[in-house]
Specification:
With about 500 residues, the protein is mainly α. It is about 45% helix and about 5% strand. It has a five-stranded parallel β-sheet with strand order 3-2-1-4-5, sandwiched between helices.
Length: about 500
């Protein structure tokens, strides 16, 4: 009996069934051509290079759950007797086919051995992904096969939003205004009710364990699992919890790490377990259902705008990870200080809100955005350590680290990126702590050795008297470290370095 033609659905950073236009196209093609869908995920060098320890942990969980979701929607009966020598798949069979290796070679191998008629995927916007995808699409077209890509990861394509001169934007505010003048984001589409899955044996498939994504050499990810639930259902649960319980206070309290009001959807968006269209329309529904709360919904959607802007800049930049967008910063006199970097990574800087953030990051794979700015400023300004060192650490430890947001944010912190805060804007960790964690609740949660410090000294224990320190059972330099550098000294050193860079460019 003739084998059914195959439509390959190539999952990448879109690990969901709902609002997945490439998946919809694959299922539609299979239906119209009396074919079947072959869902695949390929851990190639492009994707592997974008993963750190925390994102590898997340990816393993997400792939496992996606496989289960696909199996639950498999139209098993449709595949019965497609070939007399092949048993129909069971609900426990692997529905998402996993591969490791060069994506082009793996797809070519499937084309050579199976009746593939079409390949579908959702677009990515970093240069390595674009290069890979362009080559694969050209190879498919040369074979006379259908190959289509779709917008699913961004509300607005980077090439759709242009300045009056027809170029990409370098400043957020006019970029977001231009986005808002564009046609509104389309309504999310539902997940397919059923899918006729390919039941062919495919050479080279591996189990998820063979992708080597699990924490090594021991399971250090317990805290990540306590904080987050990867997968499409986990994403929807997070969205509904945010809409129901926290969005109403978002505009007022979003900068407060001592209050849980942010969406914490970033890792779900990073892996495409939820689409920005789903989030956008949920926020709009909230605003419609809650008169007088339009401001807080609008503020939240502007943060989606920052995500869009980061990808916009990523698309237009040559190398966002290694090259400063402001070229003069190539001459910045960065300091090589491995000990200071290590203390920063371990949350032992002696600045309480910095240490709280770094310890939260290590335990949960996450850090509040305001605190990210504070810890970043300390690193690149007070300590004069290169922003690429901060980027590398966040890449490895953040569950939401992605090719766009992470380098974009570190360049912004370093004063060398798009719409960056001027380098001479230097965060004072004491003032930031007192403003955004006024009672020290956030610090006490993550720096328990300071839990008995009075509120007025929780962000500056070095100013407390010996009697106060003794009463709080704090010994600076022993139970809690002395600051790595004086705040005034660090600020002056940063400004001096900035002037040296400017003089070098003169």
């Amino acid at each position: 009996m003739t084998e059914r033609p195959i439509a390959i659905m190539w999952f990448r950073n879109d690990l969901r069934l709902a609002d997945n236009p490439a998946l919809r196209a694959a299922t539609q093609w299979a239906r119209e051509n009396d074919g079947c869908v072959l869902p695949v995920f390929i851990l190639d060098q492009v994707i592997s290079n974008q993963l750190g320890g925390a994102t590898r942990w997340w990816l393993e969980k997400s792939l496992t759950l996606l496989d289960r979701s696909i199996a639950e929607r498999s139209d098993v009966s449709a595949n019965i007797n497609t070939k007399p020598d092949i048993e129909p798949p069971t609900r426990n069979s692997t529905s998402l086919r996993l591969f490791a290796g060069d994506a082009g070679d793996i797809i070519d191998g499937i084309l050579e051995t199976h009746p593939v008629g079409a390949l579908f995927w959702n677009r990515l916007y970093d240069t390595p992904s674009i290069t890979r995808d362009t080559d694969i699409k050209a190879a498919m077209m040369d074979r006379g096969l259908t190959c289509e890509s779709f917008k699913a990861q961004l509300l607005f394509e980077p090439w759709e939003i242009k300045t009056g001169a027809g170029t990409g934007f370098k400043v957020y505010s006019p970029f977001w205004r231009a986005c808002q003048k564009s046609p509104p984001p389309c309504t999310p589409i539902k997940a397919p009710q059923t899918m006729t899955l390919c039941d062919h044996a495919i050479a080279g498939t591996v189990a998820v364990s063979a992708l080597d994504l699990s924490p090594k050499p021991f399971d250090w990810a317990t805290g990540l699992g306590e904080r987050f639930s990867p997968g499409e259902q986990g994403a929807m649960d997070q969205l509904f919890d945010f809409m129901d319980d926290r969005l109403q206070d978002y505009a007022e309290l979003r900068d407060r790490p001592d209050h849980r009001v942010t969406s914490e959807l970033s890792p779900h968006l990073r892996f495409g377990e939820i689409s920005p269209f789903q989030v956008w329309h949920a926020a709009h529904h909230f605003a419609d259902a809650n008169p007088g709360k339009g401001k807080t919904a609008s503020k939240f959607m502007s943060e989606l705008g920052w995500r869009e802007f980061a990808h916009h800049v990523l698309f237009h930049a040559k190398d966002l990870r290694t090259q400063p967008l402001q070229s003069q910063f190539a001459n910045f006199p960065w300091s090589d200080d491995p000990d200071a970097l290590d203390r920063w990574q371990r949350g032992q800087t002696g600045f309480p809100i910095v240490d709280a953030g770094m310890r939260e990051l290590w335990h949960t794979g996450y850090m509040h955005n305001r605190v990210r700015m504070i810890v970043g400023s300390i690193l690149v300004k007070h300590l004069l350590i290169h922003w690429r060192d901060g980027l590398a650490w966040f890449d490895d430890t953040l569950v939401d680290a992605c090719p766009a947001n992470n380098p974009f944010s570190w360049q912004w912190i370093g004063g060398c990126g798009a719409d960056a805060a001027p380098y001479f804007r230097i965060f004072n960790p004491v003032l930031q702590g007192e403003k955004f964690d006024p009672k020290g609740d956030y610090v006490r949660q993550w720096v328990p050795e300071l839990r008995d410090m009075p509120d007025q000294y929780i962000h500056k224990p070095w100013d407390a008297s010996p009697l106060i320190l003794k009463a709080a059972d704090v010994t600076l330099g022993q139970s809690y470290p002395e600051p790595l550098i004086g705040l005034k000294e660090g600020r002056e050193r940063a400004l001096t370095a900035y002037q040296e860079m400017k003089m070098a460019m003169a």
